[in-house]
Amino acid sequence: MDFILPFLARWVHIVSGMIVLGGMLFAALALLPGLKGSATEQSMGDTIAARFRPWFLLGVLGLLVSGFYNYYRHVVAKDVPSMYHMIFGMKFLLALHVFAVGYLALGHNKPKRARLIGGVVISGLVVVVLSNWMRVLSLEALMHPIVLPAIK
Ligand code: HEM
């Protein structure tokens, strides 16, 4: 039964990432270009942003709770190299950029919405690259654990 919490945390993390980054990617690639130039561009943009905002916030909450839980597990188990913590630091800062600028972009009456969302998408994609790197490092550490010599 020990696997249930890590299993659930991984599911929550991935689904929350899909909501936050997936929503922003959809807006950048299809929604905003589709609305561009139409008479209702601003009002439709505001309505859609207001609809998405609670889901975005829920996704952020899911990412933070599951992310800190995942990280805590590795820290407690001391099973990852120091490089892992460095990458985590960079990932966390970029994730904060995604959360803060994403939240701003979902505000009311934002003429620069497309630019803000473009920045969120770029940071979000880098966050996924760093996450992959962390995953490789933690799997690597699992397969080849560091065996410290016994202190006599
Ligand atoms: C834009 C926000 C974020 C995105 C898109 C994202 C995405 C991901 C993805 C795709 C994975 C790999 C999942 C897997 O294979 O199990 C992952 C793992 C992870 N994430 Fe995030 N994440 C985000 C924010 C965060 C935050 C805020 C934290 C910490 C508070 C965090 C901590 C972690 C940890 C510790 C792992 C485990 C890495 C490992 O396998 O060792 N993430 N994340």
Keywords:
152 residues; mainly alpha; 4 helices; 82% helix; elongated; binds protoporphyrin IX containing FE
Topology:
Blueprint: H1 4-35, H2 41-77, H3 82-105, H4 113-143
Helix pairs in contact: 1-2, 1-4, 2-3, 3-4
The structure holds protoporphyrin IX containing FE (HEM).
Give a structural overview.
By secondary structure, the protein is mainly α. The chain has one domain (4-143). Helix content is 82%, strand content 0%. It has helices spanning 4-35, 41-77, 82-105, 113-143. Helix 1 (4-35) runs antiparallel to helix 4, helix 2 (41-77) packs antiparallel against helix 3 (82-105) and helix 3 (82-105) runs antiparallel to helix 4. It is elongated, with a radius of gyration of 19 Å. The two termini are 36 Å apart. The model has no long low-confidence stretch (mean pLDDT 94). Bound molecules: protoporphyrin IX containing FE. Residues 10, 13-14, 17, 20-21, 63-64, 67-68, 70-71, 74, 92, 95, 98, 124, 127-128, 131, 134-135, 138 line the site of protoporphyrin IX containing FE. Protoporphyrin IX containing FE is lined by residues 10, 13-14, 17, 20-21, 63-64, 67-68, 70-71, 74, 92, 95, 98, 124, 127-128, 131, 134-135, 138.
Number of individual domains: 1
Cα-based radius of gyration, to the nearest Å: 19 Å
Span between N and C termini? 36 Å
Q: Quick one: overall form?
A: elongated
Mean pLDDT: 94
